[in-house]
Structure to design on (230 residues):
DNA sequence: ATCATATATGCAGCATTATGCATATTATGC
DNA sequence: GCATAATATGCATAATGCTGCATATATGAT
């Protein structure tokens, strides 16, 4: 029983032990985000991002919802944000890459507003 | 710079992602402990425990001090205990295995006192 | 000096995982 | 229906890490 507890926790930590996944989680604690946004932020191939999202999803760490063509991911457990705050500090502003094709990065001419 | 931050954190989480190391850290947040105590608690070969301790030590997560033949390890950063509390809950009583040869498990006839 | 105990280190085989690539699925617009 | 865009999945291989074993060092006792 105690051993199972450790097993469970190590699996959780394992998810955090790779920078792509950690970066995804860090981004998600700011706000939910669609795959194409995460793809832009990470600067990695779509397939790769999607694969990491699957890992996180199957572990129950993130959840997703579909909106038209887009799939939005979000953190699924407040503990995750808690852990991230300890190691990464307070959450900052949402990342707004200039070349991101996603609606949230393009609404309200937000790109123009970026310095 | 931001990338380096993630790198650093993933390395930390990686340390937590294996049950032997996690168990060591969990044990250490109760109190400092000598290698032979950890060895008994984990039920693993001495060489193995020693190796994991080295990994933790080189990462700066634990520190050690020598007392005669024994080497005592302790947590080196309060953040570690903080993280563990989130995922493992409040720290419990120190583990006192009946067959542990270490002085702290044998002082004051503490073994007899165990039910 | 010799022996026993506690701890540390180096190395190698095995298992696990990461990463990239090709392709499948699903939704939208025409 | 077809084309396109967003996302997901499967697979192969390269990389990484676990784990056990043999051995080294250091301390204390006789």
């Amino acid at each position: 029983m105690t051993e199972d507890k450790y097993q469970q926790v190590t699996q959780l930590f394992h998810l955090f032990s790779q920078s792509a996944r950690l970066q995804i989680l860090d981004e998600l604690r700011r706000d939910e985000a669609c795959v194409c946004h995460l793809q832009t932020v990470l600067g990695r191939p779509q397939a790769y991002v999607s694969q990491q999202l699957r890992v996180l999803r199957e572990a129950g760490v993130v959840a997703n919802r579909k909106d038209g063509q887009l799939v939005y991911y979000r953190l699924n457990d407040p503990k995750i944000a808690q852990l991230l705050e300890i190691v990464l500090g307070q959450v900052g502003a949402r990342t707004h890459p200039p070349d991101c094709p996603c609606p949230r990065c393009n609404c309200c001419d937000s790109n123009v507003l970026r310095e």
Q: What stands out?
A: Chain B has one domain: 2-113. The first strand of chain B starts at residue 33 and ends at 34.
